[in-house]
Amino acid sequence: MMDLDIVKAIQSISNPPLDWFFTGVTTIGGEVFFILLVAVIYWTIDKRFAHMFALTFMTSALFNTLVKGVFQRPRPYTEPGVRVPYESLNMTSGYSFPSGHSQGAGVIGMTALKASKRRYRKPLVAAGVFVMVAVPLSRIYLGQHYLTDVLAGLVVGVAIALVVFKVVDLMGDNEHLWTLAMVPAAVVVFLVSQSHDVAVATGAFTGFALGYYGEKRHVGFDVRATLGVQTLKIVIGLLGVLLLKEGFKLLYEDSAFMDFLRYLLIGGWVAFGAPLVFGHVFRRHQKTV
Q1: Is the predicted pLDDT of residue 183 greater than 80, yes or no?
Q2: Distance in angstroms (rounded) separating the CA atoms of residues 273 and 271
Q3: Is residue 138's pLDDT more than 70?
Q4: Confidence category of residue 215, pLDDT binned at 50, 70, 90
Q5: What is the average pLDDT value for the chain, to the nearest integer?
Q6: What is the dihedral of CA 77, 144, 60, 205, to 10 degrees?
Q7: What digits encode the pLDDT tens for the residues 219-246?
Q8: Alpha-carbon Rg of the chain, whole angstroms?
Q9: Of 133, 123, 188, 183, which is closest to residue 157 (Cα–Cα)?
Q10: What is the spatial distance between Cα 148 and Cα 84, in angstroms, rounded to a whole number?
Q11: Distance CA 135, CA 158 (A)
């Protein structure tokens, strides 16, 4: 019962400003923020680094779903006295242990720390530490997870990041081939599970892996450009993501298979479709270094 007491103790300081703050913070560890972050890095900063980040996050998400299926721990808000600030949060599906958002925070935080070795050391270290502390805390405050859930999730996320970073380094210049070889395994995991979370993770991974292979072999898009062009790339690219994510829902009924297909298209657009468009539209405006 200590886990439950900790949730209630943290929620004892609840107030509207904190509700708003932690509801915003918690999105950092979720799939939507991840897709946006990978897309921006991939289109404007470093394709190879974005690939490593995507592979790490997807590996973490798949592992999290499989472990949750083993433990099947109910979420705290199913217990009397646990508060959920907004009704939409009370509709969160899936089990509680370990926390997927905390795993995602671990991956994002470690990615920020790795990036800080190249440039912007202090801001990136601060951002990484903030994410790894604030996101797990938000999950407890919002009644979505216990302390043991978020601690386990954070540790697993950090461990997976360290392992995948090393594995990607060993892949060398053939990282696109190794990533493509993982697609059949991802599809098998989806077919066996048939859950929403697995559909999203495996669909996005499959689309990104196929797109990354195609972009590296046939497009070779140069991310460098002027600030104005970079801004336009982000706007156009994210409009494409939004169209696929929300527009697809209007055409087909919600199901695990359609989630898989929707996120497969999103992953493919981010890795291949958008760079292909950018390469043609902004060819004359790319920045020479």
Answers
A1: yes
A2: 6
A3: yes
A4: very high
A5: 86
A6: 90
A7: 888 888 888 889 999 999 999 998 988 8
A8: 19
A9: 133
A10: 19
A11: 14
Answer for the pair 235, 36: CB distance below 8 angstroms, yes or no.
Answer: no
Among the listed residues 20, 34, 44, the one whose alpha carbon sits nearest the alpha carbon of residue 287 = 44
Tokens coding 277: 């468009």
- The length of the chain, given as a count of residues: 289
Kindly state the greatest CA–CA separation across the chain: 63
Ranges of H-type helices in the chain:
2-11, 16-26, 31-44, 47-71, 100-115, 121-141, 147-171, 175-181, 183-193, 196-214, 227-242, 248-251, 256-268, 274-281
Structure tokens at 229: 């062009």
**pLDDT band with cut points at 50, 70 and 90 for residue 102:** very high
CA triplet 91, 76, 10: central angle to 5 degrees? Answer: 115
CB proximity list for 87: less than 8 A, separation 6 or greater:
none
